[in-house]
Amino acid sequence: MPPMSSRFARLAAIATAAGAFSGLFGVGGGTVIVPLLLLWMAYGEREATGTSLMAIALIGALGVAGHAVYGNVDFAKGVLIGLPAIAGVIAGTALQQRVRPAAVSYAFAALLVASAAALAF
Amino acid sequence: MSAIDLIGVLAVGFGAGVASGLVGIGGGVLFVPGLVYFLGQGHLEAEATSLVGVVMVAVAGTVRQRHYGNLRPRDAVEIGLLSPLGVLAGVVVANLVAERALEMGFAAVQVYFAYELVRRARGTRAGGPPLGLSERASG
After folding, report:
1. pTM as predicted
2. ipTM of the complex
3. Splitting chain A (121 residues) into consecutive groups of 10 residues, what average pLDDT does each group show?
4. A19, A67, A85 member nearest B20 (Cβ)
5. 3-state SS of B43-87?
């Protein structure tokens, strides 16, 4: 565990990068938060993904509030796509406990390369 | 809404949730095209609406990962609450740098992250941070 000031500075840097990239590209902060927790904060794969989800819940809630002010949020449609996603995330987290942590890193690396290709081409 | 559209949106939602649980993303990258394609939303509206799904999936995923002992709540709260600073920084940067340069820059960062994650998973990279700083030496 890094010293407190270093730890806070790194978390602040991760938060800033996640906020900036999600604001710029509409890509969720998770593609930034998970790798940085792994590479900078010496997290394990499962902890990084779990902690990322909690941060995303807060970031997403702030985003919903901001967009709702402008009337852009259709809550009924959001819930319609969100409900099956809850079933999915319960299955996904259960599956994650059964695979090797390194497999999570490889899956994430593949996701990053696909996302980079989508941005670049 | 046709039955096909309903099945499509349920399938996209479920798939996004599985991805979210496996790798810790919010799933917006799948929600947004799902809302555009199956529910006929415009891009801005879909991005805004997708956040409802993101919050739902992230809260459910957080509860499950807490159950599995994979959560550091304090760090998560700090990242979540400090992220609006980044949104502001992003707005400033977006007005200073060409959009294409930003896209290519972020793509390069993602490829670099992918490379480092694979090195780390293969055990050919120390667990510490980049820039030559040693995590273990500092802590």
Report:
1. 0.88
2. 0.92
3. 78 92 75 94 96 94 88 95 98 96 94 90 86
4. A85
5. HHHHHHHHHHHHHHHHHHHHHHHHHCCCCCHHHHHHHHHHHHHHH
